[in-house]
From TrEMBL:
This is Glycoside hydrolase family 92 protein. One of its GO terms (biological process) is glycoprotein catabolic process. Residues 35-287 form the Glycosyl hydrolase family 92 N-terminal domain. One of its GO terms (molecular function) is carbohydrate binding. Keywords: Hydrolase, Signal. The lineage of its organism: Eukaryota, Fungi, Dikarya, Basidiomycota, Agaricomycotina.
């Protein structure tokens, strides 16, 4: 039986976690949480075809996610791969995405007989049908290799993993904590200088504590913070409920006789329990500040004596509080699995990095007061994920922005891709968009003056050595990349020069959008006219400096203005996708492509020619562009096709990297019937709702948002739309119209309709008006 079918059996028989708990133990009912399938997106045949998601247990936005370890994770390898047959421990991981590195992990390894510390020796076979996988509880039976079985169970709170092992009573059992392991970077087996760490056993407290300096992305840290960030450490405090019969410290596979502590590489420690012990509970507090703080986190989140069931119940309740906010009618069991798993995926990143009211900053290597978040994949998440968070986790938006402002204060710049600290991954300074969108949508509770200062710096201050640094993808030994190329021709002529900077054409289009976001921010904050107008003019002009009239496509240009060739200067996309990447000025783009009819034809050519690549973000908004050019029915058709082809309820159910929630945010918005094509505008473009009805309880609002679209599962076309009884003729609706609840009533049809075709005029007029704002 595959893991998926085992999961479905559990669902259909209504067992879930309940059957595994003492009968007296009640778990909160949640249809939504029962439909989460954490294996969705775990893998394809190659890391590239993988969503990179792991079946981890943790509450929303948790600092540490706990998962059965099947692999030594690294950039391109996740700690859990569903095809594996052995489990090598249970890992508290901070790896936020498959193409990013791990930081400060800890691994808990159960075993019997002689202690096996090395990854390759300690794997225990398991069979799929012994697994129960849910967001709050995981269990598996491990084969000890000599006829015994270990039942391993796992749950977690944000900063504490809770594990319970039931050992065969006739064998001598142990639990090992791994502090440091070999890393693929600069790994010389005979002389390991990184990562180093420490370990200590305290049998009186029944604790094993330790730390390591592993931060796999250290190699791409901007140079000005590299020194400070090199002090980063992950700490842990593991406390057992069972006295130790024996214990020891192990280095590189051998016990260091008589030692309670150790320092260095390849370090672990174990506690052995008396034969006959049976159940052992271990709670593992994790910290980025210190071992003491890890201990405080442990005591604060899971007190002594708390049962694993109670931990699982609390974490399940936390998920239910979010996921139960949407009820669907007309969705199949499979649809619900895809939908609620997507919802689960969108509420994981960025993740909490503060502990007890303080946080460690790798930017300045200090501990500060306040909240902090990390795991910001902003080139991906500014598109739809952030809009989703604004709707479903608005209580966190002010501190997520404040955290970015702290990064600015401590490191000099807003984040691009923060994984503990900045990594310079991808292009553009889309934190500008996150801030602008929040302000445009009326989010309060952060320092808008500081936000403006930080974002305006992005638009006006080039990176260090801009003139002679290429800022290639993952280039080492360079400083903050931010708007590489800003100092050259971009400011004067409008494009980033391809012969000077990498990914120049993608940068040009991204910077133009970021300028648009800043223009909206400046206007909302009442900044001086000349600043507002300069940003707006740059945003509107820059994209079209790349438009090659001879080919009808965007094309990178060199410093001297010559064309660099159709395939030059793109990142994670090509000329097809990027020519549609002017989300803030589709009317002008349509005009450049010869008017509406010819623009619609170019969209057809894009899709019919197989150029749309939904596995990567530059394609995500493209199906929605039809609806801005009078061909809404084609948006409705394409969105349905894309959802079907790129999402399903299997481990390969995400065609591309989840990218910290963006793949799923696209699905969720699309399933509800609208998508934020131009996030900083505060507008959504209407698509085609997938189900008969969605009832949404937005946090902070008593009136639900009810989306009715009777017959939608078999009728993809929209014949009409009304909001609170008022007819809507345009395919563009605003955040304001939905953000406080209301009734969105779609009339669906099996045949293409002209709705939204001829009535776009008001949108276009409104658009032109908006450009004149000041
Ligand atoms: C999972 O493991 C299989 C078999 O080793 C491998 O082919 C595949 O690439 C892995 N998937 C991921 C996402 O790492
Ligand atoms: C997978 O992606 C990596 C990084 O983008 C790339 O170097 C590699 O060629 C890709 N491999 C396949 C099989 O597509
Ligand atoms: C670890 O042990 C192996 C032999 O088991 C040895 O070859 C290697 O040099 C040792 N590494 C370190 C860092 O001590
Ligand atoms: C181990 O590597 C470090 C760093 O490269 C070097 O300084 C040291 O001399 C090496 N030690 C041995 C024993 O080779
Ligand atoms: C490290 O952080 C301190 C502040 O704690 C700052 O003064 C210093 O410039 C930083 N050093 C580097 C190399 O960034
Ligand atoms: C393309 O054509 C437009 C309108 O005819 C013109 O304004 C623009 O300068 C041309 N672009 C380039 C790069 O030649
Ligand atoms: C313009 O720049 C490109 C790339 O650096 C170069 O190949 C080309 O010769 C230059 N053209 C002129 C007219 O200078
Ligand atoms: C596109 O169509 C809209 C109305 O549907 C119209 O207002 C607009 O002028 C057209 N634009 C172009 C460039 O043809």
């Amino acid at each position: 039986m595959s893991k998926i079918s085992a999961f479905l059996v559990l669902l259909s028989s209504g067992l879930g976690l309940a059957s595994k708990c003492p009968p007296s133990f009640s778990i909160p009912k949640s249809e939504a949480v029962d439909h989460v399938n954490p294996l969705i997106g775990n893998g394809g045949d190659t890391p590239n075809g993988s969503g990179g998601m792991i079946p981890s247990t943790a509450p929303p936005f948790a600092m540490t996610r706990w998962v059965a370890q099947t692999h030594q994770n690294y950039v391109s390898v996740t700690p859990y791969n569903h095809t594996a047959t052995t489990i090598h421990g249970f890992q508290g991981t901070h790896q936020p995405a498959i193409w990013m590195g791990e930081s400060g992990q800890v691994v808990v390894v159960p075993g019997t007989g002689s202690v096996k510390s090395k990854f390759e020796d300690r794997g225990l076979r398991f069979s799929d049908d012994t697994q129960i996988i849910s967001p709050s509880y995981y269990r598996v039976e491990l084969d000890t290799g000599d006829g015994g079985r270990i039942l391993a169970e796992q749950s977690a709170t944000s900063r504490v993993g809770h594990l319970r092992f039931t050992f065969p009573t006739e064998q001598s059992a142990y639990v090992l904590l791994e502090a440091t392991r070999p890393t693929p970077i600069t790994y010389i087996p005979t002389n390991i200088t990184y990562p180093l760490g420490s370990i200590a056993v305290d049998p009186a407290r029944r604790e094993i504590t330790g730390s390591n300096s592993e931060r796999q992305d250290w190699i791409i840290t901007p140079t000005s913070i590299a020194q400070n960030a090199s002090n980063f450490k992950g700490y842990f405090c593991a406390r057992f409920d069972t006295p130790f019969a024996k214990f020891g410290v192990i280095q590189n596979g051998s016990e260091i006789a008589g030692e309670k502590t150790g320092k260095g590489s390849l370090l672990s420690a174990y506690a052995r329990f008396p034969v006959g012990t049976g159940k052992v509970n271990v709670r593992v507090g994790v910290s980025f500040i210190s071992v003491d703080q890890a201990r405080r986190n442990l005591d604060a989140e899971i007190a002594n004596g708390v049962a694993l069931e109670e931990t699982a119940r609390r974490t399940r309740t936390a998920w239910a509080e979010k996921l139960d906010r949407i009820q669907l009618e007309g969705a199949s069991e499979a649809d619900k699995e895809v939908f609620y798993t997507a919802f689960f995926h969108t509420l994981q990143y960025p993740y909490e990095q503060d502990e007890g009211g303080r946080y460690y900053s790798g930017y300045d290597n200090r501990v500060h007061q306040g909240k902090s978040y990390t795991g910001y994949s902003i080139w991906d998440t500014f598109r739809g994920e952030w809009a989703w968070l604004i709707l479903f986790a608005p209580e966190r938006i002010p501190s997520m922005i404040t955290s970015m402002l702290q990064d600015y204060k401590e490191g000099g710049w807003l984040p691009m891709w923060k994984n503990i600290v900045e990594t310079n991954i991808m292009v553009g300074t889309h934190a500008d968009s996150l801030i602008a969108e929040a302000v445009v949508k009326g989010i309060k509770g952060f320092d808008t003056d500081l936000a403006w200062e930080a974002a305006y710096k992005d638009a006006t201050v080039p990176p260090k050595n801009d003139g002679n640094t290429r800022y290639a993808d993952r280039e080492e030994n360079v400083d903050y990349e931010v708007r590489a190329g800003l100092s050259s021709v971009y400011t004067e002529n409008g494009w980033v020069a391809d012969d000077v900077h990498s990914e120049s054409a993608s940068r040009t289009l991204d910077y133009a959008y970021d300028d648009y976001a800043l223009y909206r921010l400046a206007a909302a904050l009442g900044k001086p006219k000349d600043i507002v107008n300069t940003l707006r003019d740059r945003a509107m002009a820059a994209p079209f400096t790349l438009f090659n009239n001879a080919t009808g496509f965007m094309e990178a240009r060199n410093a001297n203005g010559s064309w660099a060739g159709p395939d030059a200067g793109w990142t994670e996309g090509d000329k097809w996708a990027y020519t549609f990447d002017v989300v803030h000025d589709i009317p002008s783009l349509a005009a450049y492509r010869g008017g509406n009819a010819s623009f619609v034809q170019s969209l057809d050519d894009h899709f019919d020619g197989g150029h749309n690549d939904h596995t990567n973000e530059p394609s995500h908004h493209i199906p929605y562009l039809y609806a801005l050019a009078g061909a809404a029915s084609k948006t409705q058709e394409r969105v349905r096709e894309i959802a079907k082809a790129n999402y399903n309820n299997t481990p390969i159910g995400l065609s591309g990297n989840e990218d910290c929630g963006q793949m799923s945010a696209w699905y969720l918005f699309s399933a509800l019937g609208f998508y934020p094509v131009n996030p900083a505008s505060g507008d959504y473009v209407v698509g085609s709702p997938f189900f008969d009805k969605a009832t949404i309880h937005l946090p902070g609002h008593t009136k639900p948002l009810v989306i009715t679209s009777a017959g939608a599962p078999n009728a993809p076309y929209v014949r009409g739309l009304s909001i609170d009884g008022k007819e809507v003729k345009s395919t563009v609706i605003s955040h304001k119209q939905i953000a406080t609840g209301g009734n969105l009533q779609f009339e669906m049809s099996k045949e293409p309709q002209t709705w939204g075709g001829t009535e776009m005029l008001s949108y276009w007029m409104n658009f032109v008006e908006r450009q004149k704002v000041l």
